[in-house]
Amino acid sequence: MERIFSGVQPTGNLHLGNYLGAIRNWVRLQNEYECLFCVVDLHAVTVWQDPEELKASTRAVAAAMLAAGIDAKRHIIFNQSQVPGHAELAWLFNCVARLGWLNRMTQFKEKAGKNKENASVGLYAYPNLMAADILLYKGTHVPVGEDQKQHLELARDIAQKFNNDFGVDFFPVVEPLIFGAAARVMSLRDGSSKMSKSDPSDLSRINMTDDADAIAKKIRKAKTDPDDLPAAPDQFDGRPEAANLMGIYAALADIDIAEVCNKFGGQQFSAFKQELADLAVETLAPMQDELRRLMGDETHVDTVIADGVQRARAIAEPVLAEVHDIVGFLRP
Ligand code: TYM
Known about the structure:
Rossmann fold, three-stranded parallel beta sheet, mainly alpha, two-stranded parallel ribbon, 2 domains, 5 strands, Tyrosyl-Transfer RNA Synthetase, 13 helices, globular
């Protein structure tokens, strides 16, 4: 059976990259797969989080999944910490994965920065927890943005090594699902770095909670270059800002980037930015309205999460019991 697992960290505002690179694809895939969508609070605490803010963000991320159109009756929305199997399987994977594998993870290097001696052990072992998230449910497909690709390759290696070490064909080899134009949405202030929750400049990203004025202002202020817009996708070389803004337009309008080049090629950035802002406001508005409504209904969101936790546990428990047998843990 094919099963999707994917997750988002509850660390601050969800932004357009999270939506176009991940959540919007989940909404589309939910008709073809059985899905689990997880608010990964255990991942969030690899860096210190304010406890009250963590709770609020966990709710807000679950609400955003609902507002985007995930059907929580057919699928599972839940938070990671409430299914203890994630942490447990992650421990076993700490014993399967090799130091050399983790040493190659570029995201750890980026996040730990210069002072890597001071990074938490959790931040280092983070990809093992990610593998556990997916494999705890024998997830087969994982829709993510481009930045998670290396972590998913590690998850495949872990599944294969576990199967080899114990002579079983137990864990599936997970398939990443990474889609086109919006797989890597870049910062509005710098077309060569990723749009990110942790960028100190709020102008660098469009938050899912930004109102129409904020969206228009951020797009108006977005970095550009002095030339007119390219007329074809092969003219993006050395023009990361043009590529990013036109890529965002393509993703929002759900058309090919070549079509965007056709439409706006040769024009100045200013007119295009106005159209992009209008499109962004119009496309995001229905979801943002629903998100605001859900944020005012904590009880409903909490009920959805609690129900998801129960259903996730029910899938995880028998998998974990089999893992215990395979590894040789006595279950008296
Ligand atoms: P996180 O919370 O950083 O991001 C959530 C999802 O959004 C995608 N994304 C982007 N896509 C395009 N452009 C961007 N600028 C951009 N920024 C973020 C991410 O690729 C991701 O799909 N480690 C993961 C969460 C996680 C997970 C998992 C994912 C934990 N366990 C198991 C899949 C399966 C993370 O930090 O995502």
